[in-house]
Amino acid sequence: MAEKMKALWKTSAKAGAELKDAPIPTLKPREVLVKIKASSICGTDVHIYEWDNWAKSRIKPPMIFGHEFAGEIVEIGSLVTKRKVGDHVSGETHIADYNCFQCRIGNAHICENLKILGVDTNGSYSEYIALPENNAIPNDNSLPHEVATAQEPLGNAVHTVFSQPVAGNKVSIFGCGPIGLCAIMLCKAAGATEIYAVDANDYRLNMAKKLGATLTINAKTEDPAKRINKETGRGVDVFLEMSGNPNALKSGFESLRSGGEAAILGVFPNNVDLDINNYIVFKSATVRGINGRKLFDTWYKVDSFQKSGAVDLRKIITHKFKLEGYEKAFELMKTGNCGKIVLIP
Question: Distance between CA 196 and CA 227 in Å, rounded?
Fold first, then answer.
């Protein structure tokens, strides 16, 4: 095996990235080395690439970013027992210590010493990656690697959607990126009576409609809250925020009925000014913050939804680029005229 690999680096505290060599990771005893076959772009990666306020507060260059990936194990550490060379795997990006209070009460996804792959550690925009064997999620060999990369965002959608009842309820989904599109498929499979999909991009709204949204609303051309309140008469039962846009957050709460439930997954670039009294207190709304996936319950649900046919991740993958074409890929991602974009090392 060569000593070097190509990787996409966040080399300095400014917008952009740089493709250059990196050493192939050396394994710790409980780690596996994965040859990456595909890695996809997440909204978090766009935050890092554009170097917004969230990225400035969290990312410490130089580092390799990216965190949604799939590949094949080519080497295992001396104490690895659960995985073997040749296994096809995806990566769980929450690296927990499994010893702290949160981990011991079943909340490893909010571990007190949590590290996020591609945020706090080197990530997956490379040819190889080392990760703890617990974080290497096995895949059927029949599952294409580019499809397997989208299981991580599907997990985010599973965690968000099923944090409150959706069956028999009216649901709004603000943000029709890949996670929002997954959420539409999940809500439809779970028996939501109406699904209102909101975005500012017609490309993604068209995808949302095809995947099962009852009504799509372009926030650039009409007021989402007014339209949803008109359609429902009293607002939706469940509001899912997946855009990270402050205006979407406000519109979502404006169109949530009194006594309704909200789940917020979107990452916001700055602090948000929110009318807590009218949006939450006087509405008696239940609000949940969602961080990634529940370990490892969410992954079993991800597998079940795919095998049942309720979710087809191939429908949200629209573009593929070689890793060397990252600039075009990120520019396309920023336009919104895409679903999930996959990078091939």
Answer: 10
CA angle 100, 104, 110 (to 5 degrees): 65
Q: How far apart are CA 141 and CA 89, in angstroms?
A: 9
Average pLDDT, the chain: 96
**Using one digit for the tens of pLDDT, what is the confidence trace for 43-101?**
899 999 999 988 999 999 999 999 999 999 999 999 999 999 999 999 999 999 999 99
Burial of 291 (0-12, 13-18, 19+ CB in 10 A): middle
| Rg of the chain on CA atoms, in Å | 20
Question: Does the active-site annotation cover 145?
Answer: no
Q: CA-based angle 265:270:273, to the nearest 5?
A: 85
Tokens 């890929």: give the residue: 329
Q: For the chain, what is the total number of helices (H) and then of strands (E)?
A: 12, 18
What percent of the chain is predicted at pLDDT more than 70? 100
Tens-place pLDDT, residues 207-234: 999 999 999 999 999 999 999 999 999 9
Q: How many Å apart are CA 254 and CA 241, to the nearest integer? A: 13
Beta partners for residue 232, in sequence order? none
Partners of residue 69 on adjacent β-strands: 39
Residue 138 in 3-state DSSP?
A: strand
Burial 238-263 (b: 16+ CB within 10 A, else e): bbbbbbbbbebbbbbbbbbbeebbbb
Task: Give residue-wise pLDDT tens across range 308-337.
Answer: 999 999 999 999 999 999 999 999 999 999
Distance (Å, whole) CA 178 – CA 319: 12
Q: Report the chain's terminal Cα–Cα distance, integer Å.
A: 16
- Three-class SS string for 205-226? HHHHHHCCCCEEEECCCCCHHH
Active site (annotated) includes residue 81: no
- Name the catalytic one among 26, 47, 149, 232: 47
Q: Which of 26, 44, 88, 94 is catalytic?
A: 44
* Complete domains list, the chain, with CATH: 4-149+312-344 (3.90.180.10), 157-289 (3.40.50.720)
Query: Please, which residues have CB within 8 angstroms of residue 335's CB and are 6 or more apart in sequence?
Result: 201
